[in-house]
Amino acid sequence: MDMVNGNPPFDLILFDLGGVIIELAGVQQMLTWSDHLSSGDGLWEQWLSSRAVRDFESGRSTPDCFADAMITEFNLPVSPKQFLAEFTRWPKGTYAGTKALLTQLSKSFSLGVLSNTNELHWQRINSEMNLIHFFDWTFPSHLTGRLKPDQGTFRHAAEATGCSPDRILFFDDNRINVNGARTTGMTGYTVAGVSGVNQKLSDLGVLDPNPAKPVGTKWKSQFIGEPN
């Protein structure tokens, strides 16, 4: 894909947060706590199908109920208080270069967040990381009630933005979520951190790496999704 006549191949770029533009400490912490999990892939497969996680990240559970359920489900050797204290600190901050990249992209593209998240992490993202104002569209799962990799989550984002799925570029650090996006017609890529995003954008011709310069006409709106 390239920018022919200054026309970009996408109208909207959707980002997952953790592992893409926000560095997370949670994977190693969970592996340390969970003797039965030997890899990050194994953890994510169990995480995405976990009833405790799905209830909390869809806004149907409280932090205290989430902690109790996680300790039981994952057989964690910690108290609920300790789990919540550690869990709240999992988002460490944005990767180096995140805000410069978003600033550059926002000149030519609508940008959005499509993230499985929760009230504890979302509060920190809003209050400490000075990040959300870069985005025209925000779809945090605990407010929309919709979770990746469910196909309905991606369809909802496309319908809410009025953007055809084939004009949406999606980045996630989890291949399961990327596969979910692709089944709805979006272009999706698994990346690790902002360096991975930069490399893929350059590969696609969306960014000229010397210097980074997106080309296109931006349409702008603001939206926080709500469940039907």
Features:
alpha/beta; DNA polymerase, domain 1; globular; 228 residues; 11 helices; 2 domains; Rossmann fold; disordered N terminus; two-stranded antiparallel sheet
Question: What does this entry look like structurally?
Answer:
- The chain folds into 2 domains: 12-23 and 92-224, 3-Layer(aba) Sandwich (Rossmann fold); 26-89, DNA polymerase, domain 1 (Orthogonal Bundle), CATH 1.10.150.
- The protein has 228 residues and is α/β, with parallel strands linked by helices.
- The protein has 11 helices and 8 strands.
- Helix 3 (51-57) packs antiparallel against helix 4 and helix 4 packs across helix 5 (80-88).
- It has helices at 26-33, 40-49, 51-57, 63-73, 80-88, 98-105, 119-128, 141-144, 151-161, 175-183, 193-204; strands at 12-15, 22-24, 91-94, 110-115, 137-140, 168-172, 187-190, 223-224.
- Residues 1-5 and 215-222 have low confidence and may be disordered.
- The protein is globular.
- The strands form 2 sheets. The chain has a 6-stranded parallel β-sheet with strand order 7-6-1-4-5-8, with helices on both faces.
The helix tally amounts to 11
Strand residues, percent: 5-15%
The helix fraction, in percent, is 40-55%
Low-confidence stretches: 1-5, 215-222
Mean pLDDT across residues = 88
Query: Order of strands across the biggest sheet?
Result: 7-6-1-4-5-8
Could you give a short account of the major beta sheet?
6 strands, parallel
What is the SS-derived class?
alpha/beta
CATH class type of the largest domain: Alpha Beta
Q: Please give the number of β-strands.
A: 8
Provide the number of structural domains. Answer: 2
Ends distance:
35 Å
CATH superfamily of the largest domain: HAD superfamily/HAD-like
CATH fold name of the largest domain, please?
Answer: Rossmann fold
Bulk shape: globular
CATH architecture heading of the largest domain: 3-Layer(aba) Sandwich
Rg, rounded, reads 18 Å
The sequence of SSEs as H and E is: EEHHHHHEHEHEHHEHEHE
